[in-house]
Amino acid sequence: MTETYPRNALVTRPLALVLGASGGVGGAVARALSRRGYRIRAMNRNPEKQARKFPVYEWVAGDAMKLEDVMAAAEGATLIFHGVNPPGYRNWQKLVLPMLDNTIVAAKANRARILFPGTVYNFGPDALPEPKEDSPQSATTRKGRLRIEMEARLREAAWNGTQVILVRAGDFFGGTSGANSWFGQMVKAGKPLGSVTRLSAPGIGHQWAYLPDLGETFAALDARARELPSYANFHFEGHWDEDGSAMIEAIRRVSGRADLPVRPFPWFLVPMLAPFVALMREILEIRYLWRTPMHMKNDKLVAFLGHEPHTPLDDAIAIALEDLGVTLPAEDGARQTSAA
After folding, report:
1. What is the CATH number of the domain that holds 85?
2. How many C-alpha atoms does 325 have within 13 Å on its Cβ side?
């Protein structure tokens, strides 16, 4: 249930700065925190544009690479959600650490805690197939090594008095920004659903995180932050696709097309494009996650919260397709009939 607040209550509501509120995970966390009583401040290079899309938030102009902007945006915040990434994977190695450092400085200055979405990239082959929260991190990829350094800096921040709550999750789906996700490679945003793309090798499991569930998980952990240590990390299980077919079959069920064609992802093109396209280089580095199963279980999370927020897969898929503007076969037929 969405909570409402009288105008004079706004000054008493705690303030959360959400960096990346216009993105998938940041947007989901912002909505979940807002439902739990937070006033949301969001920073963006184009706040006027974002304010038209999300008018309930307080939008301020700023760049996560500029410490003075982050400091100004964080003034008065009791928590900062750090969900910003370089656009289009450009200059990743030069930007992600300075952006995180700015968040850490701002959090310390305001005595705010940090919420941070982790990834599976930290783990190397020695931690597979079921890495734990405290498994050794020996990533072999550049992106993975950067993620290891990010977590190291967050642990140092926690050691110095800034509380950090970190949740690692699989690939995201759900939300309007999903076109830039792996789910957006399975179906095409804004297009009729004529086929679905298989991403993994046959029989290889994969882990998916439905963003509204992940956002609620962050909010639930934040609500009990006083019970957590200065550095708390959890694994979010989400939807574990045991053999790579569960997501495909769910899309088929939701579409009402049991015979919906399945096409393989053109992995053979990735090495050819990688020298020229930054995104393809990033995809090539993490291809192993579609060839080798990696299953992060949520035992620690469930032991603390008592449950993990979990939307049934078919319901999550139906909403995710709608979020992307994907036209289902029955809808497309109805539109054609209406037009005739």
Report:
1. 3.40.50.720
2. 6
Report whether pLDDT(6) > 70. Answer: no
Domain region containing 317: 7-241+293-323
- For 305, residues 6+ apart whose C-beta sits below 8 A from its C-beta are 217, 220, 221, 224
Farthest CA pair distance, the chain: 67
CA distances from 227 to 21, 33, 143, 165, 304 (A): 26, 18, 32, 12, 9
Q: Is residue 219 part of a domain?
A: yes
| 328 lies in some domain | no
Print burial letters for 201-239: b (CB count within 10 Å at least 16), e (below 16): eeebbbbbbbbbbbbbbbbbbbeeeeebeebbbbbbbbb
Reported as a single tens digit per residue, the pLDDT across 113-139 is: 999 999 998 988 888 899 999 999 988
Contacts for 226 with CB less than 8 Å, ≥ 6 apart: none
- For 27, the token pair is 């947007």
The predicted model scores a pTM of: 0.91
CA angle 258, 259, 264 (to 5 degrees): 115
Exposure class string for 7-35: b at 16+ Cβ within 10 A, else e: eeeeeeeebbbbbbbbbbbbbbbbbbbbe
What span, in angstroms and rounded, lies between the C-alpha atoms of 114 and 326? 35
Overall number of domains in the chain = 1
Residue (of 156, 147, 138) closest to 85 by Cα position:
147
Answer whether residue 249 is part of any domain.
no
Q: Give me the residues paired with residue 262 across strands.
A: 196
The answer to whether residue 156 is domain-embedded is yes
